[in-house]
Amino acid sequence: MMYVGFGYEACVKVAEELGISLPMDEPLGQRDSDISSGFVKGQELLPVADRFLNIQKFEKPELLKEALTHPSSIYEDVPCYQKLEWIGDAVLCLAMRSWVYRTYPGLDVAELVILESMLVCNETLAFLGFSEGLHRLMNHRDPSLPRRFEEFQRDIGKQGRGLWGT
């Protein structure tokens, strides 16, 4: 989504931000109260995107709806996020490889691969989205998702660590 909406430079900025463990100044779930529960339509997503991405002007707000539309919402007018996820993963990997290579020039290839894999994985990206309450904005028709979100939140709480504290 970042690449399609903002281009490569914005992806690099996000990747640089992902280069450190994110401190949690409040427990997961407390931030959820300032985001309404359920799928948010249209322009109401702009403040959420601004807060999560730190971008005030969003040139293609329709991408926000697409980015939050789960494949289980097959009868929506909005396409699901899978195509954005596909291109976003590729761009994020490229940006992370560039950042890791420049930041840690002394690492060997195996260490570079491990660091990239740790930064660009479902768990890291889920943690980032979940910690901002984006799961509450998902447009889905999958009755198992709320339970899976609750389990994920419990698992994160049990670890009691930062993002990459493995």
Describe this structure in words.
Helix 2 crosses helix 5 and helix 5 crosses helix 6. This protein has a single domain, classed as Ribonuclease III domain (Ribonuclease iii, N-terminal Endonuclease Domain, Chain A). About 12% of the residues have low confidence. The chain is mainly alpha-helical.
Please summarize what this structure is:
The protein has about 170 residues and is mainly α.
Annotation, overall tally of beta strands? 0
Instruction: Work out the count of structural domains.
Output: 1
Quick one: overall form? globular
Query: What is the CATH fold-level name?
Result: Ribonuclease iii, N-terminal Endonuclease Domain, Chain A
Helix content: 40-55%
Rg over CA atoms: 16 Å
Largest sheet: none
Strand content: under 5%
- Based on the structure given, which CATH architecture is correct? Orthogonal Bundle
Question: Any idea of the CATH class?
Answer: Mainly Alpha
Features:
globular
Write the layout of secondary structure elements.
Layout: H1 2-6, H2 8-17, H3 45-53, H4 62-67, H5 82-103, H6 109-119, H7 122-131, H8 145-159
